[in-house]
Amino acid sequence: MTELVRNSSKLKEIEKRAQELVKKMTLEEKVFQMINSAPAIEKLGIKAYNWWNESLHGVARAGVATVFPQAIGLAASFNEDLLEEVADAIATEGRAKFNMQQEFDDTDIYKGLTFWAPNVNIFRDPRWGRGHETYGEDPYLTSRLGVRFIMGLQGHDENYLKSAACAKHFAVHSGPEDLRHSFNAVVSKKDLYETYLPAFKACVKEAKVEAVMGAYNRVNGEPCCGSKTLLKDILRDEWGFEGHVVSDCFAIKDFHENHRVTSTPAESAALAVNNGCDLNCGKMFLYLLEAVEKGLITEEQIDKAVTRLFATRIKLGLLDDKEKVPFNNIGYDKVDSDEMKELNLKAARECLVLLKNENNLLPLNKEKIKTIGVIGPNANNRRALVGNYEGTASRYITVLEGIQDYLGDKVKVLYSEGCHLYKESISSLAGPNDRLSEVKAVCKYSDVVIACLGLDSGLEGEEGDEGNQFASGDKPNLNLPGIQEDILKTIHASGKPVILVLLSGSALAVNWAHENVHAIIQGWYPGAMGGRAIAEAIFGEFSPSGKLPITFYKSTEELPDFTDYSMSNRTYRYMKQDALYPFGYGLSYGKFEIRDVAVNRTDITNDGIDVSLYLENTGDMPASEVVQIYVKVELPDTPNPQLKAFKKIHLDKGEGQKITLHLPIEAFSLFDESGRQLVYKGQYSIYVGNSQPDKRSIELTGKKPVAIKLTADSEMQLKDR
Question: Which of 460, 485, 625, 694 is an active site residue?
């Protein structure tokens, strides 16, 4: 966490300073500071400031900045250090751009330092259009990556935040998009505390995140941005959150227009602020003036909210002399620099997941290939590189361009778009499948074919995003859209070796491809440098090392109803059927052996368990592996083995390393129906390997994780710590 947020005396000084400032404001001035486009208060020397800024995977919507892989791709890296490194780079570019914009008096939207990221919602259903903004379906993985991303954004200075992070969307939020403004998510206390809250808790208690954003929906009848249960009882009272709460954009008007829990804008604004929402993305809080007149809220409550907001601005150094704030020295030359491009390439490399590699087709040897075919609607699609909430890159390298650049003049590259991403034809006046003959020709003259299929942010994203074609951003099913699979079958029928590159932010049911295609790489939305990273992976410049942060299911039909927020039969933790590709799965060009697995004790106590092992790269090239530890409570009606520790290790050929990972007492706990966190008396199993211990993972990897039995001699209730 930042050194600043550890310093209680410094924080008290900041709060006192903010309070003194607020005392000098009129009620109207205070209320206007509670909307995202806060105006200047000239008498106090306060500049205008817009709180709405985005940095999900790079500084977004504010001109040129490094476009890193989308969040779901970063999650596939299973690399906490990388997440902090990327977020620190984002904060550096954010400061550099902010300093430049301030120089030219530009205080517009997206030009500030309060970044509304990360999104730590749980990707519980693969149809959700915004799932690619998250770190996947697992609360533990999401917690670890979210904490480190926040640390990177906020920095480690003892006096100032580098930027202010925001954990969103609090809470129990993951689609459907077209119902979000009126939907009531009904959830048990067990699922709430076991699945939907852990990442937020870690962001608050460990990373000391500066802001939390409420969600659009209701939870058990209460609108999230005005929920006493979420914002007061849990966030502030249970977890001790000291930052500010912001509404999702225009969510307050949903209280009276859609949720119908209030009757007027003034009532909605008062409900939100009285329950702890401090900042309104939108204009509804302007009705607080009316709410005060009608006795719906006190000015004292407004003072609390505005004090929290100005405490954040003080922590950012926005009200201090320029020379006092070290981050004011970050120059515009840091934006889009060579160092940023190199980090972006590194991130893109670590995101790639090798799903299949029959007979070690990959990596390809370019010396043995004369002509290579590249086919598919995502081969040269920039939109499939970036996902949503994206910035503007100075250069984009698509898969086609990456392959062309890598091979140069040595190998001929033939290209066909193959088909439209989701329509039956590319040219508007043409008949269906109007590139079929071209596809067949490219296959005929190629030695090997790379098929680039999948989705882009026009098919999955947020409700209201320009260009969403399906279900307000959600997917209607898990199939490849349009005639993409028909094109893939045509390519396969040519008899040439086929490598499928999937660019998507979510799981696709590529059952036919798994049975018939020789090699498959999941590329996610890999960022502006993504095409180069994919080309380098295909030709063996490095070994893919990503693991799936989500489950790839076999069909839509096996999923529970989209609107059912119960975790029963959802995600790898609770599903009963075999996956197509399981959470935590990913192949490598390297070969790794895990041996000498041991624990420091077999009885579970408050001190937890240390797990040691020796990892060795026995393959022919340097590579990285993710050691994964899963815990299973061996009692009826308990979840499947759950991820509770992981570490990514890079080893040279023939190199080995001893590793010790700690499982705290919380790793063995579950929640009961009343929301109590318990370590039950009984038997436990831990599994140590490079995947889950499920049957499908063992079948795909050919390796079985090492199992060790542990015992808890008595039941223990864990108190919040």
Answer: 460
